[in-house]
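Lab notes, practical 5.
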Amino acid sequence: MTHTPHMPLVAVPEPETTQIYDGETSWQKPWPRISPLLYKAPFFSFWPFVLSIVIALIVGIGSAYLSLNRGSPFSALESGVWVGHPHAGTIDSDPYSTAIFARTGRVPLGSGEGIAFYAAFDDSGRVLDPQCHYRISGRVPSTRLWTITALNNALELLATDAGRASLHSHGMLMDHTGTFSIDVAPEARPGNWLPTGGNSGLVFAMRLYDIPYTTGAGLSAPVMPAVELVGCK
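Output from the prediction step:
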């Protein structure tokens, strides 16, 4: 019997390849291989990646929700406690303002129609309360017609025992200078009375129709009436 000795295994080295960097064509070459050890690093694991996606979604959707439901349109025009948005309902309205009006279902006055001002605080900075007595006094800018309406925090008509929640300038008692005084309270008051009621908050909306601020004559803040707290129950 012939014995065949085992031949030793010899590792044949692979030919060495020298990579030459070429600024014009190197961008076409494949990415270098990443060591498998890097895949075991924490930042390459699956759950941190999922967590970052979840956080991004919460922040993105949450900020959009707050902007559309609790935000205020841009380009505000302020006069005391009154805030208006002259670009609302026009082609100059920004996307956020357009989305806010679309989300809330509010219909702004169109360009050339007028401008609406809202007040949610009195002149002392206190939040308006539908159970308190307020006095709105002063004058409004030159306009064909203006109205004053009592709304709740959702900017819906306030439910009152009197069955109405608004006044207009054609039925307003004024002096010879155009100065007026409106008593806002749940109970009836002599003179100009704007009834309120309920517990869903209070916001005053004053709409000025055919005012120069909507016809291109200017965008400076007009002088608006004062909102004074008289007393609460």
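Observations recorded by the TA: The chain has a mean pLDDT of 75. The beta strands are 77-79, 82-84, 114-119, 132-138, 145-151, 166-168, 180-185, 192-195, 203-209, 226-232.
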